[in-house]
Q: What sequence folds into this?
């Protein structure tokens, strides 16, 4: 994205950003599990070995939004539906380590991903259902329960959890979903006339 913005103005920076982008893209796709159709979340502490102990939602929703033209993205969405969906609420877990409840921010990311893939009916239905849980001022909580497990741990060894309280991150992704904008689309910011393009306008 940055390499395209700088094209014709700074050749060295253009090449650097392009190379960095290709490196990052290669890393993301190295995390892909082709057998099951999902992206792993991280490496182990050596920075090389794939950490297979956890499977999180956002590494998959962000991959869909960034690489929506890649051939396996429908498989990734199917994996999300089959493995990271909270059966009680119908919304989505933080990871496969989430035992109960749903993660609001990630659920909106999944809703945006549906729109990106052209699943317009699913997008509209789940957006309306999740928006019904919002506060009167339009904000929304990080999770529908206190102590939602993520499967990750903080630097002090304590468990990283989400509580049922208003969240800036969740509310921001709610706004993104309502606007119908894919903020990870590499073509979105190429010129000033494309910055407000809404996918939802065609739904």
A:
């Amino acid at each position: 994205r940055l390499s395209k913005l700088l094209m014709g103005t700074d050749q060295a920076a253009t090449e650097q950003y392009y190379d960095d982008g290709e490196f990052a893209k290669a890393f993301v796709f190295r995390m892909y599990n082709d057998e099951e159709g999902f992206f792993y979340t991280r490496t182990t502490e050596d920075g090389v070995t794939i950490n297979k102990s956890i499977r999180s939602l956002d590494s998959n929703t962000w991959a869909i939004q960034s690489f929506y033209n890649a051939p396996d993205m429908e498989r990734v969405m199917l994996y999300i539906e089959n493995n990271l969906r909270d059966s009680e609420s119908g919304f989505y877990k933080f990871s496969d380590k989430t035992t109960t409840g749903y993660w609001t921010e990630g659920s909106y990311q999944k809703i945006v991903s549906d729109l990106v893939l052209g699943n317009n009916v699913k997008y509209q239905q789940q957006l309306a259902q999740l928006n019904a849980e919002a506060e009167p001022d339009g904000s929304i909580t990080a999770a529908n329960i206190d102590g939602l497990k993520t499967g990750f741990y903080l630097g002090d060894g304590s468990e990283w959890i989400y509580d049922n309280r208003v969240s800036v991150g969740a509310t921001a992704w709610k706004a993104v979903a309502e606007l119908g904008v894919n903020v990870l689309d590499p073509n979105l910011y190429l010129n000033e006339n494309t910055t407000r393009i809404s996918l939802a306008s065609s739904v």
Observations:
- The radius of gyration is 18 Å.
